[in-house]
Amino acid sequence: MLWCRVSKRVLINKCNVSDASAQDIDIAMKLGAGYPMGPLELADFTGLDTKKFVLGIMYEKTGHPVFRPIPLLDKLVGEGKFGRKSGEGFFKYDK
Questions:
Q1: Does the pLDDT of residue 7 top 80, yes or no?
Q2: The domain spanning residue 41 has which CATH number?
Q3: CA–CA separation, 63 vs 79, rounded Å?
Q4: Domain named 3-hydroxyacyl-CoA dehydrogenase C-terminal: which ranges (predicted)?
């Protein structure tokens, strides 16, 4: 379970600091790790605002660095990009 949290944190940060796009990361995880849905697509599906909220509570309760705020996630949520429900997150969706 902790591995999933760590890997998502690393992957979200990878979007922010490298040339890898969200699509590149999701394709790599689907093909390389056998994920049925890429981790960033899954984050969009569940809601980036929800992910940010849950990470905030977990960090507040545990202080564990894996739950620290993620700048890219904060930026997207601050721009109203919540994922599928808003029509845009890591990816764009038809409403």
A1: no
A2: 1.10.1040.10
A3: 26
A4: 19-93
